[in-house]
Amino acid sequence: MSIIRDALKKAEASKGPDRIRHAGTRPLDNPKVLALRLLVGSALLVGVVAACLIGWKGYGIYRARNSRIHPSTVPARARGEVPLKTRRVADQKPKTPAVQQDEDLTRQAERLFWLGDFSESEKLWRRARKEGVGNPAELDNNLGLVLEKEGKLKQALTLLDEAVRAEPKMVEALSNRGIVNRKLKRYKSAEADLKRALDLDPHFTHAQFNLATVYEAMGRTKDAILYYRMYLKNRARSPGLDEVLILQRISALESRVSGVSYSPGGHVKER
After folding, report:
1. 35 in any annotated domain
2. How does pLDDT run across 25-36, given as a tens digit for each residue?
3. Domain count, the chain
4. Containing H/E element for 195?
């Protein structure tokens, strides 16, 4: 037995200290493996930080679009319609309590409009109009649009008429009145309003879109396609899901012009 023990001791001694692995311990890691692990960990950390920054930035854009609406940058959900027109007091000017209260009133009315609570929004716009908060023509335009959303078309038309009379060059009021006239099937009046708005502002996206819907309702398919495409090419337009829907609409209109229709199964058939 002593001979065997001596042989084992000699064998272990011949391996050297760097090759000995004791029970319950790990061998030293390869430096390349350590470097790779460090690189992967750093990449994962950078990815997580980038994702958080992108999410935060996206949420900021969403809040900005839904809290302070500007007529030239309207979210796609508006489908070409001008939501509201308001004028803000310059930030550098000191605000009196009365001015701040007026701004809070109109801002709350806008917020309710975007939330789809048109009934409460109407109450606030009527209150602002009664108290003379801001520009009268803009208040008539805003209240008129809310009434249009509620289906009160004749009341909306009366208010929008007053807005246009007070400020004939207000393209928002002209475009909104065009929407109401289209819904009342007064297509010639709607066309005149929207063309007037485009004469004043050739790149006004909402008037382009709304004029396309008027021409589609009138059966003027080629004109409708023209203005739908003009709307899509307009760089001032806010991108959104409506682009896909409009492209589908254009495709359907073009099939009418070419005399080709599509069956529910997707098969083409001549008319």
Report:
1. no
2. 444 456 766 777
3. 1
4. helix 187-200
